[in-house]
Design brief:
about 240 residues, alpha/beta, about 45% helix, 3-oxoacyl-[acyl-carrier-protein] reductase, oxidoreductase, SDR_fam, SDR
């Protein structure tokens, strides 16, 4: 780990984002998180921010930079779902998910690269989803937004790869979170039956991959998509 390396995790107050923030903190990094609503973990430097608002993101970065200095690692994790079948999906259902999950990640990455270029080092990690690669009924909006992160990471890699800045994508499958805990036992069984590993992942299993991608050991990995899905979407 680079001494005093600072990490920003968007949507870091719960679920996968909180697990990632926890793992980085345990590894000795300075960790800041953004949140839009809900409770904020007291263990982290938390900044309220809305990824659909560029001014809000800029203000959040400035607050974190004042507290810790340059941000060397950004995990773009904030996201929403508005699931419904294509024929019932409103245009707002589609555009609002794209604006948060895809354009929001763009706003975060664009702001992050300012400091990374100055410091000649950076790690950008996008949290996508197996549904962005594999597709999922009722998630045309969500799948499109998560698939878009792959093109974004690869374009950033071609633009900034020579500047010691990497951009990679983690594509989680079914993870044990509040969302999956709310599923019925019948649905859980249906899902696990099609996962080769026959289980949902622990949030820490996503966080471990993020920690590796942020490390010096992953300096030659960029534009990659790493599925963490128990084999569910292999080949996609």
């Amino acid at each position: 780990m680079t001494e005093n390396q600072t990490v920003l995790v968007t949507g870091g107050n719960r679920g996968i984002g909180k697990a990632i923030a926890t793992e980085f903190k345990n590894a000795g990094y300075n960790v800041a998180i953004t949140y839009r609503s809900g409770d904020t973990p007291k263990d982290f430097f938390a900044v309220k921010a809305d990824v659909t608002d560029a001014a809000s993101i800029d203000a959040a970065f400035k607050e974190v930079e004042t507290e810790f200095g340059p941000i060397g690692i950004v995990i773009a994790n904030a996201g929403i779902t508005k699931d419904t079948l294509l024929m019932r999906m409103s245009e707002d259902d589609f555009t609002s998910v794209i604006d948060t999950n895809l354009t929001g990640a763009f706003r975060v990455a664009q702001r992050a690269t300012k400091g990374m270029l100055k410091n000649k080092r950076g790690r950008i990690i996008f949290i996508s989803s197996v549904s962005g690669l594999y597709g999922n009924p009722g998630q045309v909006n969500y799948s499109a937004s998560k698939a878009g992160l792959v093109g974004m990471a690869r374009s950033i890699t071609r633009e900034l790869g020579s500047r010691n800045i990497t951009a990679n994508v983690i594509a989680p499958g079914f993870i044990k979170t509040d969302m999956t805990d709310a599923l019925t036992d019948e649905l859980k069984k249906q899902y696990t039956d099609v996962i080769p590993a026959r289980r949902f992942a622990e949030p820490k299993e996503i966080a471990d991959v993020a920690l590796f991608l942020a490390s010096e050991g992953a300096g030659y990995i960029s534009g990659a998509v790493i599925p963490v899905d128990g084999g569910l979407g292999m080949g996609h």
